[in-house]
Structure formats: structure tokens, C-alpha cells
Amino acid sequence: MFQAMKTTIIVSWVFVGLLVGPVQAWAGDREQDEPRLTVSAEGKVNLPPDKAVLSFAVETVGEKLAKVQQENQERMARVLKACQQLKIEPKFIQTTSLNVTPEYPPRPRRSSTGPLEQTIHRIIGYRVVHQVNVEVRNLEIVGQVVDRVLKVGANRFSGISWGLQDQQPAKLTVLQLASSKAQEKANALAQSLKIKLVRIMKVIEGGVSVVAPPVRYRMASAAMAMDGGAEASVSAGELTVRGTVTLEYEISSQ
């Protein structure tokens, strides 16, 4: 009798599973078949940057590696000292690369009868390149920093990138603008199409980007500064912060 009761219980559970399974599947299909409205919008703000990152390098070349390295270190030390004199904190000065490359003579043309030794390269010198990024938060001295470091030892200038010390407030602002615009768009479409917005089913952040203005830097002014002429001219312009938001609504007829 116990065996018969156990069999009955198992059969009952199987029967309940057969009943519940189709109901769940039907509910999922129904949710997918609900009419939806999807809208997207972009938020944008323009604002001035509050920092500049200057990229400099000291490049030295010579026959003896020790001498080339020493000259590079001495010139870079003058660059760092100049930055400190302009009240740039050491934490805002970062080495991004330090490369030591052997120099070779031009590859000779090997004739059909020439000896093999003519094609073997020999080192004739070394090139050391020390690259640094300097973050300047007082934008009034950007041109002065460029001039000073080029005077005291830097001989390569890669450019200026503008940015924000804290991007988070601007990013939140553009997302709020994008959300409001998306809701306004949805309301306008609902009114025009005679439909009702039931609820928001999905919110998708499309990402936020900070676009820096093109750098306006006159190299001629830098050359004049190195010779004791005018200060280099820079223009910060404005940054553009963009963000997109997509909203998906469940809708119904009015």
C-alpha cells in the first residue's frame, strides 16, 4: 500500500508540472507580444576645460650610451625644475615612456660579388627619448609652461590635450538632459498616435563622451620663445560632453 501511495504522489507532481509549464511559457510569450514604443535622445553641454595635459620629450643622440643618457637626464632635470618653479606639483608630472635605441649606419647596397661583412650592421650610436606628460590646472600659464620647458631642455613637443578634473557632474547632467528629451519625445509621439504610455520597460544608457576642441598652438611662437621672443599662443576653447539614453515603453490604446 505504501508503494502505491508513493507512485500516486509522483504522478500527481508530474501532472502539476504539466499544468504549470504551459502557463509560464504562455505568460512569457504574452509579455513579448505587448506593444512597445522605443525612443532615443541625446543630451549635450559645452563647457570650458579646467586642465591641460602637455606632452614633452627630451631626445639626445650620441656615440657613447653613458654620455647620451647623462645628457638626457641633465636636460630632463632642468625641465622638471622649470615645472616646479611654475608651481606644478610633482604628482602632475608623469613619465610616459623612456626609450633607448641603438643607431645604425644606412644599409649599404650589396653587390653580387661583395663580401658578406658589408651587410652586417654595426652600432654607431644611441638615441634616448624621455617622454613626460605635465598636467597644468592653471590654464593661464599653459603657454608659459610650453615656452619654459622648450628653453631649458625639451626638444620635442607632442601637443596639448584639454580636459576636466572631474568629469562626473558633466556626465550626469547630459544623461539627465537626454532622459528628459527622450520622455518628451515619447509623450509627443503618444499624443500624435493616440496611444497611452503604460510604463517604462527598459532604460539603456548609450554612453557618454567628452570631445576636446582642436589644439591651436603656433610652433613659430614656440621657436620665438626659445630665442627670447614672444610667449607661445594657446587657445583652450570649449569641451563638448555628449550622452544618449534610450527608453522602451509598454503602450496601449487610449
Q: Using the CA coordinates, give the radius of gyration.
A: 34 Å
Helical content, roughly?
A: 25-40%
User: Can you say what the CATH homologous superfamily of the largest domain is?
Assistant: Protein of unknown function (DUF541), domain 1
* Separation, N- and C-terminal Cα atoms: 61 Å
Which structural category do the helix and sheet elements fall into?
alpha+beta
Give a structural overview.
- With 254 residues, the protein is an alpha+beta fold.
- It has two domains: 34-49 and 165-254, 2-Layer Sandwich (Translation Initiation Factor IF3); 51-109 and 124-163, Protein of unknown function (DUF541), domain 2 (Alpha-Beta Plaits), CATH 3.30.70.2970.
- 39% of the residues lie in helices and 36% in strands.
Keywords:
Alpha-Beta Plaits, 5 helices, 36% strand, Translation Initiation Factor IF3, alpha+beta, 254 residues, three-stranded antiparallel sheet, 2 domains, disordered N terminus, four-stranded antiparallel sheet
What is the structure about, briefly put?
By secondary structure, this protein is α+β, with helices and mostly antiparallel strands. It contains five helices and nine strands.
